[in-house]
Amino acid sequence: MSTTSVEAKTDPALLAHLYRRTGFGAAREQIDQLSGQDYEDTVEFLLNPTADAGVPDDELTRYMGGEAPHAYLAIWLYRMINSRCQLQEKMALFWHQVFATGLVKNEHILSSSNQIEMFRRNGLSDMRTILLDLSHDPAMIFWLDNNENHIGEPNENYGRELLELFSLGVGNYTEIDIKNAARAFTGWTFGQPPPLYPHGYYPAQFRYIEEDHDNGEKTFLGHTGNLDGGDIIDIIVKQPACARFISRHLYNFFVADEPQVPTWNDLPPLDPELINEMAKAFLDSNGEITPVLRVMFNSDSFKQARFKKVKSPIELVVGLLKMVGEYDDYKPGLAEYVSSTTVAMGQKLLDPPTVEGWHTGKEWIDGGNLTERVNFAVGEIGTGDSPGIRRVINRLIDQNSLSNPESFVRDTLDVMGPIEVEESTREALVNFATDSEGDDDATRVVRMIRLIVTTPEFQFA
User: Fold this and answer.
1) Which of 20, 283, 400, 404 is the most buried (most CB within 10 A)?
2) What pLDDT, on a 0 to 100 scale, did the predictor assign at position 6?
3) Is residue 232 part of a domain?
4) pLDDT value at position 67?
5) Distances (CA, A) of 271 to 18, 248, 307
6) What distance in Å separates the CA atoms of residue 138 and residue 19, rounded to the nearest whole number?
7) Is the dihedral angle over the CA atoms 455, 457, 460, 461 positive or is it negative?
């Protein structure tokens, strides 16, 4: 297979890094095409998703629709693998991590899937819209008991987590602020949908019950009046603490692994200068998310943070499925396959373990989880019969990459990423390339790929 010659304006390794972080990776052929345009233009394409660059909704409904829980998950996974609007899907995953809501309690798949669609729809918009939609969301209302938040009997669960985990972080509010936030959200509830049997899935709808809302005077973060939930959100979004907190969340998800969220009041950010620049973009734009991401993705800190993040299970699995190309078209069993795999690695989409979401970074890796990750990766490469691996084999053979061990290792790492490895890893790969010189070309490439996906470096994005 020949490759199209494109005059590079952007380093392919930088583009591969961008697509690992803003999405779930990209095939080398896509990287080659993108390298002919400016890096900033690629960032803008990702920041501005369009319907024609995504996967058509009617096709998804026709081929992957249905009412079983796995059907809704399959649609999202298919988009992760195939949509060109990679950042739109990655932002939905980001907000799913920050605003963790579990199906284990909700037991209503349509509410969970509608929440993900909400994150896809508004994930790149502004913080006021995001928090207001979240406060109207039946899955979140039920998850944090705001349907039990009544005038005269406030339930503080949602008000507390809105401040602690969703917008400000510990140390930037008082217990009085929590109590008054809870009062402001009284009467914000949802209508119970019809029973599943025999009616099927119907959506739950937000309801505001005026007679159940506390119209008394409240003081929140220094503001006093007859505040409701919308007023609370308006005040939150204007806080410098909100700008810093959301910026640090974005940095942790897209740039480099930070300590876990509960420690942020005690531990400074890894890159305070970049956090300050992102927070300024947040405040200058009245809480718009896209300008913050633009600052982050175009920063030197982001560009230099290659392989500084442990892949989450879903990032690892979807990235491998993109590489092998077995799900480039509609086929059954996607959700069941991915779900069983990522659960064994410690992550079940739509069902985070707590309101804190999943602990990230090196906490993704322990002896058992690492074994699952490696076994899955090797199994996906298999004997090299998948379309994506065949493309890698053909490209390396066409380039005459197997002529000597050093070029074999260099070019295989390049086609698979490019991937950067430690010198000790490179030496081990070269030794394998030397020892395997008696094998046929296709077998050598497949065995080399299988070895690369077992390396420590492959666990990092």
Assistant:
1) 20
2) 52
3) no
4) 58
5) 19, 9, 16
6) 33
7) negative
Amino acid at 145: D
Residue spans of beta strands (DSSP E) within 367-453: none
Residue 434 included in any domain:
yes
Give domain status of residue 355, yes or no. no
Q: Is 439 among the domain residues?
A: yes
Indicate the DSSP class of residue 361: G
Look at phi and psi of residue 384 and say left if phi exceeds 0, alpha if psi is from -120 to 50, else beta: left
Contact 179, 160 (CB under 8 A): no
> Exposed, middle or buried by CB within 10 Å (0-12, 13-18, 19+), for 26?
buried
Please give the single-letter amino acid code of residue 12: P
Q: How far apart are CA 435 and CA 447, in angstroms?
A: 12
The mean per-residue pLDDT over the stretch 149-176 comes to 97
Nearest to 16 by CA among 382, 413, 381: 413
Which domain range does residue 450 map to? 387-459
Look at strands 205-208 and 223-225 and give their pairing.
unpaired
CB proximity list for 438: less than 8 A, separation 6 or greater: none
Query: For 65-213, where are the alpha helices, taking DSSP H only?
Result: 69-82, 86-98, 103-106, 109-122, 127-136, 138-143, 157-161, 175-184, 196-199
The DSSP code for 383 is: T
- As for how many domains the chain has, the answer is 2
What are the beta bridge partners of residue 220? Answer: 223
The backbone torsions φ and ψ at residue 191, rounded to the nearest 5 degrees and listed phi first, read: -85, 135
